[in-house]
Design a protein that fits this description.
The chain is α+β, with helices and mostly antiparallel strands. It has two domains: 232 residues, P-loop containing nucleotide triphosphate hydrolases (Rossmann fold), CATH 3.40.50.300; 117 residues, Beta Barrel (OB fold (Dihydrolipoamide Acetyltransferase, E2P)), CATH 2.40.50.140. The protein has nine helices and 20 strands. The longest helix is centred in the middle third of the chain and has 18 residues. It holds the Pfam family TOBE_2. It comes from Photobacterium atrarenae.
Amino acid sequence: MNTYLKIEHLSKQYGQFTALTDISLDIHKGEFICFLGPSGCGKTTLLRAIAGLDLASSGKITQQGQETTFLPPEQRDFGIVFQSYALFPNLTVAENIGLGLRNQGKSIKEVDETVSHWLNLIGLADAGVKFPNQLSGGQQQRIALARALSLSPGLLLLDEPLSALDAKVRGHLREEIRRLQRQLGITTIMVTHDQEEALAMADRIMVMNHGCIEQVGTPEEIYQQPASRFVADFVGNMNFIAGSVVSDTQIRIGETLLPKPAEHLKRGDMLELGLRPEDLHFTDIGESGEASFPVMVEDLEFQGTFVRAECKLQGEHNAPTLRVDVPIRELRRLALKRGHYHRVNLSQKHTHIFLAGQS
C-alpha cells in the first residue's frame, strides 16, 4: 500500500516527563486511522507533533515524501478539527469557511462557489448567513469540518471532534464524517478515547498507553486478538478469570479442574483467561462439559437483543463478577434465575491467555 505519512522513532519529552516513547507508524494514503487510548496516554501529543503544533524531541515525520518533523504548521499540508469547534463567533458561517480561502488569494467568486459546495455537502445549504451561536453543537462541528476540508488538505486531523456532543448527534455525525472521508478519499487521523467510536469508524486503530504503542490493527484484530492485557481490558468488555496450572494437562479455576488451554503453559504458572461476555456460554440443564465450571447467577440485565448475566465463580468469595451475554432466544431454554447455580462453558477458540505479570 502507498504510505502517505511515515512516523519513525518519534519521542517527546516535557522536562522530566516523557509523553511519547519511540513511536513508529506508517499511515496509508486514503486511510482512516484512530489513535485510541485513555486520557494522558500521548495520543493528542502525537497528533500535535504531526501538525507541528508541538515539535517532537527526536525522531522523524515524513508526509508524502517530504520531511516535516520541524516545519511550522503553516508549511504543512493538513486541516484540523478540534473538540471545541474553534469557530469565529463574530463571523457568519460562510465567512468562517471562506476565511482560509481568502487568505490563499482566491477570488470572491471562487470563495463563494467553494463555500456553497461545502455547505451543500454537509447538509447545511441555508446556514451560510447565520452566526455560529445560532447553530447547534452538531451543526457547528460540521462547519468546522467544512472549513478544514475546503482548503483541500492532503491530511485531515480530528482531535476528539465528537466528545462534546450528545449520544444521538454523535452517532449521526460519526456516520457523516466516515461518509465524507470515503467520498473524498482523504487520509484521516482521529484522536479518541471512545472505543466504540474507533471500532465503528477506523480502517485501523492504534491503541496507546503511557506514551507507547500497545497494538496497531483493524478493529476486528484489536477486538478479537488483543496483543496485551491492557488492550483486552480497554477495548470492549472482557472477563478475566484467574487460574493456575496444576499439572501437565490441567488448570485450576476456583475449585474446578479444567483442561489446559495451551501447550506452552507450564506447571506452576499463574494466569488469567480473558473471555468476551459473548464467548462464554451456559451449559444446558443436566449437561456438564469438560471445559465448564459452576457459577451463581447474581443479576440479569436486559440489554435489548440479549440479557447480560452477572455471575460469581462458585467457591471464590473475592472473585470479580463474570459477565455472560445470553441471546433472548436462549433465555427461556436455560431457565436462568437470580440466585440459581449454573455451569459456564469456556470457548477454547476464543480464550485469551495472559500470564501473571504480563501488562
